[in-house]
Amino acid sequence: MTDVLTVEGLTKTFDMHALGDKQVVGLDDVSFTVRRGEFLAIVGESGSGKSSLLKCLYRTYEPTAGSTVYHPADADLATCDDRTVMAIRDSTLGYASQFLDEIPRVPAIDVVARPLMERGTPAAQARDRARELLDALGLPEELWEAYPATFSGGERQRVNLAQALAPEPELLLLDEPTSALDPETRTAAIELLSESTDAETTVVGVFHDRDVVERVADRVAVLDGGELQRVVPVAEFAAEEEEEVVA
Amino acid sequence: MTLLDASDLRRVYGDSCGDCVELTGDAAGTNQCPECGAVVACADVSLDVEPGEVLGIVGESGSGKSSVAELLALERATDGQASGDVRLDGHDGNLLDADYETRHRLRNGAVGLVHQHVRDGLNLEFTGGGNVAEKLLAAGWRNFGDVRDRVRDLFEETEVPVERMDDPTETYSGGMQRRVQIARALATDPDVVILDEPTTGLDVSVQARVLDMFRRIQREEDVAAVVVSHDLGVVRLLADRTLVMRHGRVVETGLTDRVMEDPHHEYTQTLINSVI
Ligand SMILES: [Zn+2]
């Protein structure tokens, strides 16, 4: 199995000038690899650096040290120039946060179709793909042509996830993409994510819910205080929990 | 490939003592020379824009961002001494040194400008359609029917009601006037559009719609843009990369989301924290 991402010594320190140049450590010497087609879940307490890690991988945060070699583009995302990052984001690297980025007066279906159209897919085909995804995620059909601004948190999150999946990125970074979903929708989302990873999309996702992790992940990376504790196969992660419960 | 390449842009107002640039800027905490009182509106500003890319320039009033916009848009120097180098792919030499004729031709062709103040960009007594047609005529369009068709298409694209085409621009709402300005700037299929404070004077709800309209057209036409604004939200919505300016200097540059979420410079951190 080939690797998609090789992370070595990734470190992020924030210099807070307003706090008397106080330094806040976000990540400390994090190293791991991500294999093609796998689903790597990142878990940890809040404040453990999960979101910081994703943002460093996407270069929304500029790493202070270390490297993040993204093999499909043969580039170090930690240090390559801004234009290279833009080109990679526009082609094969996707990111979805917990929240939908609001675009006023764009119907849900076009929110999902847009990234495809921006990559050159004809409008009709892009909208077909959008319908497919929204349907798979269980968004009621009567909402497809409505503005997401009027939607519930769970409905918006479905649009957000569909938008992230639409362009079929090679590597998709997900930050708690199912946090607002009800159990039934969450199951649908998880199935869709699992299918997507089978179809050659690699996912690195931050999840809060242990149950979700055990259902979607191949391996689990555990963060604590900005340090990577371990990366284990999901079965081992599940077994750890049982031990904890027994103990 | 670089479309627009600008280096060492500088504009100074007043009689300079010769040391003004050294005595002003971010470290000095002012854009006014303590020696001679001259104002260094901008200095040492270099930037480049690739085809289809949107560059944001953010800063407070007095940061020099509008001076940079004027220089990039090849506007006639009002007063003060300007220097620097502006190059546009497909055109020879430093365009800041180009003759009046060349600059005039570029302003009516390859470079579009959306002025901060509607009155600087449009003749409000003309019809909306007339304001856009004027740009086409200046660019050499001669066939009345072609001009009329083009104006109609641009109105549709910028979401201005076509039936208002022959009404005086002063009877339009603020949002419509801004749309006409954008239609005018895009009329000649420019390579790059400069937008100076595109939301000035608009209600918040109208701002969002105008910006989204511009964003849609920008991506569809793949036209490059430089968006100058004091409003971080405007730059966040439109720009791929962002420059932060203060006291006439660029203090930070980066991917827009990086600048917004991981600001490095003390001033950028203050600017962003004051919004959140
Ligand atoms: Zn001086």
Give structural notes.
The complex is a heterodimer of chains A (247) and B (276). Chain A has 247 residues and is α/β, with parallel strands linked by helices. Chain A contains eight helices and ten strands. In chain A, helix 3 (108-118) packs across helix 4 and helix 3 (108-118) packs parallel to helix 5 (153-165). Chain A is globular and about 50 Å long. Chain B is an alpha/beta fold and 276 residues long. Chain B has eleven helices and nine strands. The radius of gyration of chain B is 19 Å and the shape is globular. Chain B starts with a strand and ends with a helix. The mean pLDDT of chain B is 93. The chains are: A alpha/beta (247), B alpha/beta (276). Chains A and B meet through strand 1 and helix 2 of A and helix 8, helix 10 and helix 11 of B. Zinc ion is lined by residues 16-17, 19-20, 23, 33, 35-36, 38 of chain B.
